[in-house]
Amino acid sequence: VGMGVEPGLSDVFARYAQDHLFSRIDELGVRDGANLTVTDSRGNEIFAPSFSIWTTIEECLNPPVVWEAGRGGLEEGWYTLPPFSEPEVFEFPGGIGPVECVHVEHEEVLLMPRWLDAQKVTFKYGLGAEFIGVLRTLHALGLDRTASVSVRSADRDAPGAVKVSPRDVVAAVLPDPATIGPRMRGKTCAGVHVTGTGADGAPRASYLYHVVDNAWSMAEYGVQCVVWQTAINPVVALELLAAGTWHGVGVLGPEAFDAEPFLTLLADEATGYGSPWGIEER
Asked: pTM of the full predicted structure?
């Protein structure tokens, strides 16, 4: 369950860090950011989320979840914060640079503590000031609501009131994320910032990450980078399941499996998908 990029690849990174890099993990901090821009037909930059605005609103306006050990048992470790809490500027690799990240509700925080031994698990997304401002405005105006409201019909042949969901209206007026690839520029990065004690007993902070350039994904696959980065991970996982390399019984998250064969298949030029991942020491 949860085999995309986040959750998915991020959980694989966390498992790899536990198995190969750290003897103690203080925090598994998923950090996602990008420097993507989208232009209209005249070359002007526009507001255009790279994935479903429905998903964006759900994730960003729901109370974000954090997990911490020491609050009791596993179930007692989860708690929530207000949306957009604890902003931090995180430096993303691959030429993306600094992006302001805030807490966002995401499944990794629910999955990782069940399998991995960490003192804290967080998820922060690099929304940026403009994106946060748009989401706050949508919420303030009630345009994030899903319940239908009555509005005047624009059809002269069928006058009267019609029922529409405000969130459906927002989705209808924004560019379709599936079509913006040719007008998108920049890179996207997904990863996990892990802090704690390294295998050698010394303090360690490492960012395990995967960067995809939109120009590359469009040239090679004809899809924008956020879509490609999400879609490639279930393909890798399915290959491992089909080969019997990954196996298990029940509902299992990506962190329940050995990370090494997944990361090898993802990055290998000859036998895999030729999409490298990296580790940056902080």
From this structure: 0.93
